[in-house]
Design a protein that fits this description.
The structure is a homodimer. By secondary structure, chain A is of the alpha/beta class. The first copy, chain A, has 14 helices and seven strands. Chain A has a seven-stranded mixed β-sheet, with helices on both faces. In chain A, strand 2, helix 9 and strand 3 form a beta-alpha-beta unit.
């Protein structure tokens, strides 16, 4: 892109923001350093927003999808939802004396991370069934919501809702101001994210796609109830992400943002459609302000995406170089 | 409700419509006769929209769900999607000579409705698998879209998109002008409805909930593809409708509109929540302008809903008395 295009793109985008009547406390994308990543975003938005332009996309088709863990908030040192499940086990342990001698619960109660990891996916499923099922959707929502508003990150001591990435919050806002509809498409549990996503991300429950536990409808003692059952309805990760997108959204997004190889197919599906497309990967390369990890990490592992990004035309967002500030709690205190 | 309340409600709703800046070609709900049904709608909308009022509902929670067949468009003499499947069988028959001697295909090719009905749910599933699976989601979307824009209703000779109920289109519009988000929640196939729902109902694909065929993601000859598989992911009818609402929307609607006992649980789930709720059933009692049917009809049967409407506080919409005009093609020619 030439400088001329870039400046035209910028002013068009700015004009649209002003025209939308949304009050701007600060410039859009304020926590993004000038550079290729920020420019790619601004340019893409300008192209699809320019009425009469060759790349114009009607607002009803301006669908942007975001992975959650590692893309919108911290996933280190442990997926937040796993921390939640572990806390639930501890809270529920008095009613389950047998857990003291049964894996994977024993591992959780003894904070034995190695034994927990050794229990594998089967152990994880048992943990989820014990802590995420057997109650109504409304009860679960209340428990998850209460936890996420009070639990604190083990390293920073901050609330998890403050461990969201400020530049990504600004990106969500910027896209919406330019008439994009923003969705979460996560491998995490949909009912864990929904209760607070609107407040923190500005994303309402109906725009959250995620893994889903089975739910059944029954009238219990005269009260209509949706019960959470110990079974998986959708495991929304890897090759299932485009499927989850189809089930929920029903058209192909034009922009996708992820951070791990679990997002590979979502990026691939999004960016292989006709017309303008934007695929971006948050590359966690900042060992000082966050954690540096990619290949070989068993949380948020990124290898194939890193290898193929160039050929696929996906942009790598460098946490170190592209973000002037990382966490919401530090960038925007009081928000 | 007193007359005073009614008139205050009406003027508040009108003020909101004007404030929303949407150009009104005619008064809202123009095809609704004055009466209890129209009044119930206007009153409900006024109550939930009145900021500071006891029944105020934030716009993010103003979720309204609509059944499709028999609620938004005609389902007589046959579900439109079944007509589509039958036409597909006829179009595909040259490639399937064996269908001449195999049920339920034989029945379709010979227009033998009795034999088709005798094949039951198993036959219907075979019909759907043969005509709705084995192609990509984009191929299916194109085929369904092309059909629905050209096929004509057997009795009126009108396009199916003209066989939508004009008063319900006005209701969708009225709710949206009052900052409701409108969803379809149908037992019909989601991918059959999505391609045209935005244009005809103003409902985008991501706000359509319906029955879903299994879909898988694969890269075929280098092209990322979503393939439709012969299996059911969600059978979104009866007690599964509240479940589909949970999976897709993630919060409980405050208003629900249906017409058959297949909508019973959706109405029950919606109207049993706290705060103001609106449940309405389109009662097909007009044998002159449409078809009069309820109890015992095997299309859109309505018995339990009719029996319980009073106790549940659900309003019956009388096609005969409440609608001054029925079908879009006749009420709003040229639209």
């Amino acid at each position: 892109m030439t400088l001329l295009n870039a400046s035209r793109g910028m002013s068009l985008a700015t004009a649209l923001v002003l025209a939308s009547g949304v009050a701007q406390a600060q410039a859009p994308l304020a926590s993004w350093n000038d550079g290729a990543s920020k420019q790619a975003i601004v340019d893409f938005v300008a192209r699809v927003s320019q009425e009469g332009g060759p790349d114009y996309v009607h607002p009803s088709e301006r669908i942007a999808v975001f992975d959650n863990d590692g893309t919108l908030w911290s996933e280190q040192p442990v997926y937040v939802q796993l921390a939640f499940a572990m806390d639930r086990v501890k809270a529920m342990a008095p009613e389950h004396p047998e857990w003291k001698d049964t894996q994977p619960f024993k591992a959780v109660l003894e904070n034995d991370v190695a034994a927990l990891a050794a229990s594998g996916e089967k152990g994880l499923m048992e943990l989820l069934a014990a802590t995420h099922a057997g109650m109504s959707t409304e009860e679960f929502s209340a428990v998850a919501n209460q936890w996420i508003r009070s639990a604190r990150h083990p390293k920073t001591g901050e609330l998890y809702t403050g461990m969201t990435f400020q530049p990504m919050l600004e990106l969500l806002q910027y896209l919406r101001e330019n008439r994009f509809k923003t969705f979460i498409v996560s491998g995490g549990g949909i009912d864990f994210m929904r209760p607070w996503a609107y407040e923190v991300y500005g994303i309402p429950p109906e725009q959250v796609v995620g893994s889903q536990i089975k739910v059944s409808y029954e009238v219990k003692d005269g009260v209509p109830t949706l019960m959470r059952e110990p079974g998986i309805h959708l495991n929304d990760d890897k090759a299932v992400k485009p499927v989850g997108i189809h089930y929920h959204i029903g058209h192909r997004p034009i922009a996708a943002f992820g951070n791990s190889d679990g997002d590979y197919q979502m990026l691939e599906w999004t960016t292989s459609g006709p017309g303008p497309r934007l695929g971006m990967i948050v590359h966690h390369d900042d060992g000082e302000r966050e954690v540096a990890y990619d290949r070989g990490s068993h949380i948020g592992g990124l290898a194939k995406g890193l290898d193929d990004a160039g050929a696929k035309g996906w942009h790598l967002i460098s946490v170190k170089d592209d973000w002037s500030c990382v966490f919401r709690y530090a960038c925007a205190p009081g928000r």
